[in-house]
Amino acid sequence: MGKDLIELFAPLFSPRGVLVAGVSSHPGKFGYVTLHNILSSGYAGEVHGTNKEGGEVLGISLFKSVVDIPAEAVIDLVFVCTPAASNEQLLRDCAKRGIKAAFLTSAGYGEAGDEGEKAERQLVDLADELEILLAGPNGQGLVSTPIKLCAQIVAPNPPSGAIAIVSQSGNFVSSFENFSLAAQVGVSRAISAGNAASLSVSDYLDYYSVDPETRVSLAYVEGIPNGRDFYQRARQVTARKPLVVLKGGATDNGQRAAQSHTGALAQDDRIFRGMARQAGIAQAFSVEEAFDVSAAFATQPLPRGPRVMILTVVGGWGVVTADAMSDSDLVLADIPKDLEKIIDKKLPARWSRNNPIDCAGGETRDTIPEIMAIIADHPEVDAVLYLGIGIQSNQAKMFRTGPWGNDPDVTRIIAYHERQDARFALAAAEISEQTGKPILVATELSLTDPTNAGVKAVKDSGRYCFPSGPRAVVALNHLWRYSQYRKKSNRTK
Amino acid sequence: MTKKSETKTLSEPESRALLRQYEIPCVSDSLVEGPDAAVAAAREFGYPVVLKLSGAGLAHKSERGLVRLGIGDEESVSRACTDLLAAARPEDHANGVLVSPMVEGSREFIAGCYRDSSFGACVMFGLGGVLTEALADISFRLAPLDHYDAMGMMSELTAARLLDETRGEPAADRKMLAYILEQLGVLICEREEVVSVDINPIRIVDGKPLALDALVEVRP
User: CB contact, 8 Å: B196 with chain A?
Assistant: First the structure.
């Protein structure tokens, strides 16, 4: 089944050539923007365009019609920016020359009243008849980073990575891509499902679950026409890979028997919440959480247990992060005796002696990487949260921009601080790799100063720099729940 | 979608019989036709007892004063039975009075199942008693559900700690509660005629969950 899905979706996510139908010469129009975004993102396949008047845009000679395109042109995907009324002929012409997939940005379908709904049903029938894989209509486009394809009517072009996105709102595709770009935690595929007339969110998730480029799927959903079907298919997805879902719209459209309390208390979002837990879905309750969790799945191994050790050089953040754990299934583990003895030798006598491990400002050059390695390696520790990276680099920045920025002693310490933070970031990634345990690094500098050397080094190490300890806790909790879900599913199989 | 008018409710004895068929523990009861039989049943159970009017058309009995709690002697049983029968309306389809022993326990939960138009058969568990609808401290799973799902439904409640040892009462038997939820899932999947089931309340009696009242809505 996996291989069939990959073949089925290849024309959409791995096209050998793309045709933009309805190219415009006006940079304000979708037909121009799409062509621009495809051409400027490094796509190596053939790119063609049509326009009623022909002409040339962005160096591409436009054909007046699909039938005018030479037979030797290799095109798998048509990206449709033409009005709904002209799409039937367009798709017929495309099918004739072997185009296998269509992404429709065109509006005027299911979202546009009874007439639109009728047009949408006809569109689906037509695509079925022509054996064209139909994405949209009324969508904003798609991204496929393995082939450097950014076919969207919006920015940005996200970096390549392991998160696959599907959204019922086109804007959220763009928003998650913005998060990806800022965090440098990349995307494998992304698509705006639009009206999802033919291909549904579940269809894309099926494909993502077998896509070798994808480690985690991230879906934004609003209305789900068939909750039971969504549940059953989500279970197939989570049996293979993690799935993060953000659900918008707490409105309740269900009609229910009012006789029972059970029926009266049932609301779509309440049932959805229970269904998500049952299906092993990581349900996020904010846009930020949705990206945090996806980034965690994409860059961290799954924890094998709930015991978390917090390593901090910032006391207050350690406390609020420990507090956040009380709302989770994670355990703020006691420091094992043997571990305490080892740490005793590395830190001044005033260190916290409990979890969070507060270094109490007693760090020397090698303290952080050494202690991190020791605690992560301990058999009674399942995950580590490291808080406070970038503090010294923050001072380094103030030195650099201050009046004594060129003083040799100051320049020396600037370099030392930045080197140290980079070392710590690298240590977190390497120790996580060696131990197979998640090590999450968090600092508010991730938001307040993305140029900070510590933050930058976390990104360069291929990991996500969490914007706060509590946000890292929420993400880690999702990883732990999924880890348990998989263990349970494997047992009951 | 089934409309209210197209469904009917089972009488309480019928509802309990259905639950018992699915091994859901219910408080013992005896359906009697008049005061003498009520007194005999009360003597059998031991005082205090609970008397309720029974009838296929009865949904929300407490609101109409058709549940008499903590009755302590023969004379009161006899009088309550007479009163309840006198209060019956034709649409209640009253078939007698239900006598049960009064069981003690300060913790009450609600459990149920129903058919959702989008998600299909669902099972619900939540905080019971008078605050059920105001707090809506409830959780859902789709049926059928497994033990792990059922345990999750309990720990998801804000009031989950009520299931632990509380105010001198032993911890609730979570495994037993989980079994009840799993069985509700089996029931709603197997019985096509069942539209919804409310067990309200499930009281925790010496740590054991016990269904005190049940309402089953069925298609005719």
Answer: yes
Contacts of B180 in chain A (CB under 8 A): none
State yes or no: ipTM above 0.95: no
Distance of alpha carbon B26 from its chain centroid, rounded? Answer: 8
DSSP symbols for A179-239: HHHHHT--EEEEEE-TT-SSS-HHHHHHHHHH-TT-SEEEEEES--S-HHHHHHHHHHHHT
* Chain A contact present for B200, CB below 8 A: yes
Check: CB of residue A427 under 8 Å from CB of residue A373: yes
Q: Which residues contact A441 (CB under 8 A, 6 or more apart)?
A: A386, A387, A389, A425, A428, A458, A463, A465, A466, A472
SS3 state at A354: coil
Q: How far apart are CA A391 and CA A412, in angstroms?
A: 17
Domain assignment of residue A491, yes or no: no
Domain ends where: A243, A272, A294? A294
| Section A256-267 average pLDDT | 62
Using a CB–CB cutoff of 8 Å, tell me whether A487 touches chain B: no
**Which tokens sit at A469?**
């300890």
Mutate to test the interface with A, among B19, B122, B188, B195 (most CBs of A within 10 A): B122
Per-residue pLDDT averaged across A220-227, rounded?
88
Q: Kindly state whether residues A69 and A200 are assigned to the same domain.
A: yes
On the question of pLDDT at A3 being above 70, the answer is no
**Across the strands, what pairs with A332?**
A308
List the domain range (segments joined by +) for residue A205: 2-294
The rounded mean pLDDT for chain A is 94
Tell me, yes or no, whether A277 and A315 share the same domain. Answer: no
Residue A259 C-alpha, separation from nearest chain B C-alpha, in angstroms: 7
- Per CATH, the homologous superfamily of domain B30-101 is ATP-grasp fold, A domain (3.30.1490.20)
Partner A contacted by B160 (CB < 8 A): no
Q: How many domains does chain A have?
A: 2
Alpha carbons B188 and B210: distance in angstroms, whole number: 20
DSSP class of residue B163? Answer: G
> What is this structure's pTM?
0.94
Chain segment A336-389, per-residue pLDDT in tens = 999 999 998 888 888 888 999 987 666 778 889 999 999 999 999 999 999 999
On whether both A309 and A274 belong to a single domain, the answer is no
Position B52 scores a pLDDT of: 94
A59 assigned to some structural domain = yes
pLDDT in tens, B133-177: 788 899 999 999 999 999 999 999 999 999 999 888 999 999 999
Maximum CA pair distance of chain B?
52
Class of domain B4-25+105-218: alpha beta
Confidence of residue A223 (pLDDT cuts 50, 70, 90): confident
CB contact under 8 A, A254 and B116: yes
Separation in Å, CA A314 to CA A427, B60, B174? 18, 57, 41
pLDDT score, position A269: 85
pLDDT value of residue B62 = 78
* Inter-chain CB proximity B118 and A228 less than 8 Å: yes
CATH code of the domain in which A126 resides = 3.40.50.261
Residue A311 makes CB contacts below 8 A (sequence gap 6+) with A356, A357, A359, A368, A371, A372, A375, A384, A385, A386, A387
CB B153 within 8 A of CB B142: no
Residues of A in contact with B202 (CB under 8 A): none
